[in-house]
Amino acid sequence: MLNMHNSLLIIVDDDDSKVWSLYDAGPRSIRCPLIFLPPVSGTADVFFQQILALTGWGYRVIALQYPVYWDHLEFCDGFRKLLDHLQLDKVHLFGASLGGFLAQKFAEYTHKSPRVQSLILCNAFSDTSIFNQTWTANSFWLMPAFMLKKIVLGNFASGPVDPEMADGIDFMVDRLESLGQSELASRLTLNCQNSYVEPHKIRDIPVTIMDVFDQSALSTEAKEEMYKLYPNARRAHLKTGGNFPYLCRSAEVNLYIQIHLLQFHGTRYAAIDPSMVSAEELEVQKISLHSSSEQEEQ
């Protein structure tokens, strides 16, 4: 488990109550790290399996927790200031669910002077109307925390799941409990406020779409919409993994992340320390992943 005391707290807005909390791990010499954005119920440490594995392989990764923002523009502006504060002009983003939507909105927001080098979108969506909650989005701030938690828990898998998935859900429930009323209300507002991604603004960014074939909060229509928006995206399909594959299928997720980042090795946008790259090793990984995805399709 990650030690929460190692997280950094950073304020970039004039409003002192807006605190970003983050883990920045791996070689600081890397100027284009991979940044993880959590789902509604998540905190920075839901990506502990990615942080531990990827930094061990020489990557620089940053996992974030958002302050309270009530609209997408305000979030994008705050995130841009955070990157300025960290002196990062370009980054790779891994966004899970709401994090994936915000990653796309940020890429769109900065499209004139791009800050996003690539996107990995895990169980992500491109249009908030899929949740049919746009009419309640403006009232979340009024609801008590227990009601907000109930809304979020309604999207968690119900029914029998394997032990790893059960552990993943328990961990997320635990993280959800740690969030206050305004944190939850603001995230649900961002999740459901009427908004969609304008793909023509982020057409040129390399994208990997990561999704699961078993039950998750995303409808088949929402997934199809993502494939349509990004016809050239690489697809990373996981047979199972539910809403939180980065917790319960971390080895597969980490492998897909490496394969996505491989295209930047040897460029100034590499997220890995060049001395840690071994060509043979990566070749073996690509082959093993290719054969395992072929087996799944059979």
TrEMBL record:
<protein>
    <recommendedName>
        <fullName>Maspardin</fullName>
    </recommendedName>
</protein>
<dbReference type="InterPro" id="IPR000073">
    <property type="entry name" value="AB_hydrolase_1"/>
</dbReference>
<dbReference type="InterPro" id="IPR026151">
    <property type="entry name" value="Maspardin"/>
</dbReference>
<dbReference type="InterPro" id="IPR029058">
    <property type="entry name" value="AB_hydrolase_fold"/>
</dbReference>
<dbReference type="GO" id="GO:0042609">
    <property type="term" value="F:CD4 receptor binding"/>
</dbReference>
<dbReference type="GO" id="GO:0030140">
    <property type="term" value="C:trans-Golgi network transport vesicle"/>
</dbReference>
<keyword id="KW-0963">Cytoplasm</keyword>
<feature type="domain" description="AB hydrolase-1">
    <location>
        <begin position="75"/>
        <end position="151"/>
    </location>
</feature>
<comment type="similarity">
    <text>Belongs to the AB hydrolase superfamily.</text>
</comment>
<dbReference type="Pfam" id="PF00561">
    <property type="entry name" value="Abhydrolase_1"/>
</dbReference>
<dbReference type="GO" id="GO:0005829">
    <property type="term" value="C:cytosol"/>
</dbReference>
<dbReference type="GO" id="GO:0007166">
    <property type="term" value="P:cell surface receptor signaling pathway"/>
</dbReference>
